[in-house]
Fold this protein.
Amino acid sequence: MTAPRQDPLRDPRFFTDPYPTYDRLREGCPVRRVPTGSGGHHAYLITGHAEAREAFTEPRLSKDTVRFFADKPSNRDLHPAISRNMLASDPPAHTRHRRVATPLFTTGRVRELRPYITRVVDGLMAAWRPGTEIDLVADLAVPLPVTVVCELLGVPESDRATLAGWSHDLFDATDTDRVDAASHRIGEHLTHLVDTARATPGDGPLPSLLRDCDAGGLDRDEIVSLAALILVAGHETTTHFIGNAVLALLRHPEAFDRLRRDPDLIPGALDELLRFDSPVSVATFRHSTQDLRVGGVDIPAGFPVLIAPGAANRDPAVFPDPHRLDLDRDAGGHLSFGHGIHRCPGAPLARAEAEIALRALVTRFPNIGLAVPAESLAWRRTRLTRGLTALPLTL
């Protein structure tokens, strides 16, 4: 297995269309050593579906980022609270964090939120008129999940747009200073909200979350970090889920027509839309704590390991003809929400938001179309998530 000479996930063409790169890497070897960045460092990249599932459940692959970077020189300046959540920890800390977070996203809790989500969608679409142009990202895909998750956390309306902007900056792969600054702004702002809620206890969402955190044994930094995770992960990926799904349907008119004729098919189509163009291209950081073997490949201790759901979801060994959007496909095995103990607990909420938004879109604006050529669309320049910077549509 020969490692590429350059980081294959930093090629500008990758951000526009990662799938040829993923196919090439998977066909060569679904677990391979690749360079990361320009400092001579390497990681192991996993692009096969079976290998990704195996890695997601491998206990020797740790998500404890503090542990990995503790003895390594770095010029980064991330807010310390950002890395004290379940996305960057292993059991037993992960277990404590997840026990607090999971009740926020149960099927029952999401069912209670559906009328509120519907009202938010109605409000965002109220000024839309057939024949006019909108940007689906700015006018729906961003504000919908931001509004819902901020409501869930009890974030004041006056703070929501600002927090959304900082969250956006947190995924800027081209400017580490911007990422670091955003982490401090989010951390400091949420610390202020938590401290204020502590000083003025009540019955709102944030005081209720604080009581659950106290019962779960979370300290102040862990509470702030959990709130930051819910805020950022709770809207960033859903934004891309909605944008990617709408673009996929517009580029496959026969699929769009089926959903327009029968919107009740939308819930069943969500897995295939998630599989086809996953909002999570590469899962968050893991590292090997011991020598191990994944997919027949030896991974030494002490290396970063990158699992790519975007690649695994188009593995032809699991999904025949993977580059075709097929609403009749059984795509329930996709890995867009991860797998194992770190599987995204917010999946039910993301699915509900996407379903309600897509249903409103196809029923109210059946003649919707791209306002610009598809090849001119711009994509976020980050390998973690895959999403559009804008999606201009004619209603």
About this structure: The beta strands are 31-36, 41-46, 61-62, 133-135, 286-288, 292-294, 297-299, 304-307, 369-370, 392-394. The mean pLDDT is 90.
